[in-house]
User: Fold this.
Amino acid sequence: MSRRTRRVELGLRQNAAQFALLVAVNALVGGMLGQERTVLPLLAEREFGLTAYSAVLTYILAFGLAKAVTNYLAGAWSDRYGRKPVLVAGWFIAVPVPLLLIWSPSWGWIVAANVLLGISQGLTWSTTVIMKIDLVGPARRGLAMGFNEAAGYLAVALTALATGYLAATFGLRPEPFFVGIAYAALGLGVSTLAVRETRGHARLEAQTHRADNRHDHLREDLTQRQVFLQTSFREPALSSASQAGLVNNLNDGLAWGLFPVLFAGAGLGIGRVGVLAALYPAVWGLGQLVTGGLSDRWGRKPFITGGMLLQAGALGLIAAADTFLVWAAAAALLGAGTAMVYPTLLAAIGDVAHPAWRARAVGIYRLWRDGGFAVGALLSGVLADLYGIRTAVWVVAALTAASGLLTAVRMYETHQRPARWTSRPAEPCASTSAPPPASAPGGRSACATRRV
Assistant:
């Protein structure tokens, strides 16, 4: 008996079950990262005796480099082998990470665990981004990225809060990392048994894709080298997104590695440090539920430029403050600014990149963005050793403001208002091998243009 061919359609409503499943998977991906946010900076100082900030931040440097390179490969591999195999491979690599964090006899083992974590995050997070973009089509791309990133960073926040509580109650090891063991088991099981391949959805959109006249040079048959050059340097919107993503994660690397040390040095206990470490990604995560969808209505550029400038102001406030309440307010502002930027940058990449090489463009953007972790760890660690943590925060605030101004000058608006998509019911699309159905107004297939 032959298997019945599944219907392939674009749209959030049409793919609601798989979309929701991928949101849950990305929450588990974020949780794997969140298990470290509160505990590792304190573990470095209290159990391994590291006092130099640059030495403490080696784990973020290792994580950022590994994740950046893997993001690049994940995009190419997703186009070549499919999305699901890359996702499952990422979860296999995640399995030993919490065990290494529990049993590491030296700081070098912690760094090695973060190399594996970076590879795993590059494969899993990149793939869930690509799969959601595949499923929803062009009309709700910002909303899709808002849900994806919200799930991931809310899980980062909740896990940072939970591990901070566990560390304060039971100690820095092993109890806080039991959470990571559960996340890895669930993520691997769900991704293997329940997630379906989405590459067919990208092929369907490619059949009906019509480039904006500003994007005529971004044809379907670009080589890997051409995609890299356009995304990194040449195309104004793509390259602006890449640099803004790098600077955004540069300041996140600073927040991850040095903020707990700054707060603890001011006399705050582990519990309050955990609250501050969780507040920033919590606001970041929740805010993306709003900002991603709003960027589908109001455009990408205002959120990207405004978000970078808001982050810069929040970092300056953290550098100047010395009380829990002011730091809490600044952390909330930093999270709000990041929420404005994070899903919107991904949506902008999806707006401009052709569906035939969109996965590669996402991988290249994420190469630059997550390379910011490594740059942030190196830069802020050296500055903190030479001049103190607060000076490092001021410098990163200035770089973030400069990035926002560069985006304001160079980037154009990438999102076309959804009014040009038809609201009439779409004809069914049985499979990507079928010829595209009759065109909707504006030259787009009804399958790709159905309002969701």
Notes: Residues 418-452 have pLDDT under 50 and may be disordered. The two ends are 34 Å apart (CA to CA).
